[in-house]
Design brief:
The structure is a homodimer of 147-residue chains. Chain A is mainly α and 147 residues long. Chain A has six helices and two strands. The first copy, chain A, is 68% helix and 10% strand. Chain A has a two-stranded antiparallel sheet with strand order 1-2. The model of chain A has no long low-confidence stretch (mean pLDDT 90). At the A-B interface, helix 1, helix 5 and helix 6 of A face helix 1, helix 5 and helix 6 of B. The structure holds a DNA duplex (30 and 30 nucleotides).
Chain lengths: 147, 147
DNA sequence: GCATTTTAGTTGACAAAGTCAACTAAAATT
DNA sequence: AATTTTAGTTGACTTTGTCAACTAAAATGC
């Protein structure tokens, strides 16, 4: 096993952590926290998702999630419908205003990434994205991402 | 500007955030927090660094850092020497046991990354690292990482 | 079909992480 | 010499996240 490879990957991890940190700080305009937005996104992507599904999906503490849901309910961004065949759980959906708010936030992140890419030459941009796709592919193969 | 590229980059960000999250959870054996380790690392890499330099380097709140330093001082991991030409600041150094502890922690992360890479074929590993290097290069060019 | 165990979600109490403003003392500026 | 800036500390606070206890419904096992 090549030590240089290990160092390189660690360097990349540091680099990318910092980058994402900056991105997150910028787009988190203070209104919502990252986990909150991820919850909105999860519901947006999968209307009717249940809390326990989100817990697995986002690897989240259930009490933490429960409170996030309560907050969004109070804001009328989320609605709950009891699951007919299971009286313990709820189907979560975005309300119209919840959807609107999510779209708005989502557009903001989109634009932020756009801004980064727009500073690159066409060639760099292509290479960048291709590299990202490759990394994702390689690390998604079985084994690499286990807990 | 290609919307697909933007989506790909966002997908990568989500993917890599999750990966780093898992890594961090694993190696943060509970003993130290991430910022704490980054502080140790900063001092390790640059013996005699001052608090205000760390603040810039790690983009950290000074009160937060101050308390981290106090904790490490109490553990005898860090020593302070006043800067001769500036009575307000201190040169920070790792003590022998501080260094030892840092090395230990550092080895743990190293092994963790090693484990990931060891699950890949030689080819995948090479491609992965090359991709990481390329991403870092491209995004380090002026403009892309500004606050 | 009744007793036990498991699961979904909520709540309370708390710990950890991070921020903000006020402060002290030294250095730099004018 | 007076004023402003800078380094670092401290107090008070908010946000973020965790843990364990709890309720009610569902699934399991005799």
């Amino acid at each position: 096993m090549d030590n240089n490879h290990i160092s390189e990957m660690r360097a990349f991890n540091r680099f990318y952590t910092a980058l994402i940190g900056v991105l997150n700080k910028k787009f988190l305009n203070g209104k919502y926290s990252l986990p909150e937005l991820r919850v909105l996104q999860a519901i947006h992507l999968q209307e009717g998702i249940t809390a326990s599904e989100i817990i697995v999906l986002l690897n989240m503490d259930k009490s933490y999630l429960s409170r996030i849901i309560v907050r969004f309910e109070k804001k009328r961004f989320i609605s709950k419908k009891t699951v007919p065949e299971d009286g313990r759980s709820y189907h979560l959906c975005l309300t119209a205003s919840g959807k609107k708010e999510f779209i708005k936030q989502d557009a903001a992140t989109h634009n932020q990434v756009k801004e980064i890419l727009s500073q690159l030459s066409d060639n760099d941009c292509k290479t960048l994205i291709a590299s990202m796709v490759r990394i994702k592919e390689i690390l998604s193969k079985p084994g690499a991402e286990k807990k």
